[in-house]
Amino acid sequence: MSLVAIINTTIETIDLLREVLEDEGFAVTATYVVALKRGEPNVATFFAEHRPQAVIYDIALPYEENWHFLQEQVLPASGLAKRRFVLTTTNKAALERLVGPTGAIEIIGKPFDLEEIVTAVCRVVAG
Question: What is the pTM for the complete model shown?
Answer without folding.
Answer: 0.94
